[in-house]
Design brief:
This protein is of the alpha/beta class. The protein has two domains: 35 residues; 342 residues, TIM Barrel (Alpha-Beta Barrel). The strands form two sheets. Strands 1, 2, 3, 4, 5 and 6 form a six-stranded parallel beta sheet that branches. The protein has a three-stranded parallel beta sheet with strand order 7-8-9. Strand 3, helix 7 and strand 4 form a beta-alpha-beta unit. Helix 7 packs across helix 15. It is globular, with a radius of gyration of 21 Å. GO terms for molecular function: metallodipeptidase activity. This is Zn-dependent dipeptidase, dipeptidase homolog. InterPro entries: Metal_Hydrolase (IPR032466), Pept_M19 (IPR008257).
């Protein structure tokens, strides 16, 4: 009897160890692979005209979420959309790395509350430090530190950008060293402030240069298009915007409720961005921007980063992306058009970061000129950052 009991205990212990090993070392990768699909895997081919143009322009993407998934971005990954080698293959000069700190269960684009959070389990499963399990601000600080450590280990092939001078220096260097990649840190949702607008300063000091008021639920700072109340800016939200502008942090209108977007634009003294979105003119749903909002963002001097996933463009290929680009450029002008892929944002995309030439090809087919393509693929983004980052 005693021997049988001992065998049962050993069996339970082995099952527990196996289960924990699966949870900590296997499951997070399986979740990422399931959520961040690629409809057409590499390699990618294109016409000679697209290949020559794509190699000659500067490319910059305003939004991707690879930091959420715990991969070493200096190595070419077998899953997901973004890492430094694939950005190099896609001729991307600059990638904005956005950090997600909280995401509600049963995520949808219509109505979410803030009572649940899938990121906590992901943080535990990926063995993030204990302090990140209970603090959204600590999750952001940890992810900023991870990206900084990757840059330090990259032998100067990957560079973090914090100022205009950093970016100008990087662009000059890239003329002689094609293939190097720059990164900029951003945050999705001001819930990361944990209710205190003064935490803008903490995040700025950690290297963040862009932040949105809300993500998929309403925050203490303002309403989300996918929240419960969908309200405008709160008093704390207005203080957040003032602090961000004083620091020359870029305000991101992505996921904002109509009231919140209007409130931000009414008080903004600096241009804003929508880092990743679609437009109702080609894909009419609650995730996307109306013509009125597009015109207001353009009047503010802002940029509209168009996404690559189906909810953004109502299609599953680069042609659908180009349709949204054509509509937006015709409505507000090419100088306000940008890329906002949402790579690694729990979405399926037509290609990964190494396949951005597909967008160049589709824009040529949609009748854009070489100059217009150069602006939308990265020229506008680079200009905007050189004008609006801190000195």
């Amino acid at each position: 009897m005693r021997r049988t009991f001992k065998f049962v205990l050993w069996g339970v212990a082995l099952l527990l160890v196996a289960g924990l090993g699966f949870f900590f070392f296997v499951l997070p990768g399986q979740v990422e692979a399931a959520l961040n699909g690629v409809r057409q895997p590499p390699p990618y081919t294109a016409s000679q005209a697209a290949s020559e143009l794509h190699g000659a322009i500067q490319i910059a993407d305003l939004h991707a979420d690879p930091l959420l998934w715990g991969r070493d971005l200096l190595k070419r990954g077998a899953r997901g959309h973004v890492d430094i080698p694939r950005l190099d293959e896609g001729n991307v000069a600059l990638q904005v790395f956005s950090v997600v700190t909280k995401s509600p269960q049963n995520l949808n684009i219509e109505r979410n509350d803030d009572r649940s959070d899938d990121i906590t389990l992901l943080a535990i499963g990926q063995r993030w430090p204990l302090r990140t399990w209970f603090s959204l601000k600590e999750r952001a600080l940890y992810q900023a530190d991870r990206l900084s450590r990757m840059a330090a280990a990259s032998e100067n092939r990957f560079v973090l950008i914090k100022t205009k001078r950093d970016l100008a220096r990087f662009l000059q260097r890239r003329k002689a060293e094609p293939g190097i990649v720059a990164g900029l840190l951003a945050i999705e949702g001001a819930h990361v402030l944990e209710g205190d607008p003064a935490n803008v300063d903490v995040l700025f000091d950690a290297g963040y240069r862009m932040m949105s008021v809300a993500h998929f639920f309403d925050t203490e700072m303002g309403g989300s298009a996918h929240g419960v109340d969908k309200g405008g800016l709160t008093d704390d939200g207005r203080e957040m915007i003032r602090r961000m502008e004083a620091k020359k942090m870029i305000v991101d209108l992505s996921h904002g409720s109509a009231a919140q977007v209007a409130d931000v634009l009414a008080m903004a003294t600096r241009p804003t961005v929508v880092s990743h979105t679609g437009v109702k003119g080609t894909c009419d749903n609650n995730r996307n921007l109306s013509d009125e909002q597009l015109r207001a963002i353009a009047a503010n001097g802002g940029l509209v980063g168009l996404g690559f996933w189906e909810t953004a463009v109502c299609g599953a290929d680069a042609a659908a992306i180009a349709r949204a680009q054509r509509y937006t450029a015709d409505l507000i002008g090419i100088d306000h058009l940008a890329l906002g892929s949402d790579f690694d944002g729990a979405v399926e995309t037509p290609f990964d970061a190494s396949g951005l030439i597909e967008v160049t090809e589709a824009m040529l087919a949609a009748g854009f000129t070489d100059e217009e393509i150069g602006k939308a693929m990265g020229g506008n983004q680079i200009r905007f950052l050189l004008e609006n980052l801190p000195d």
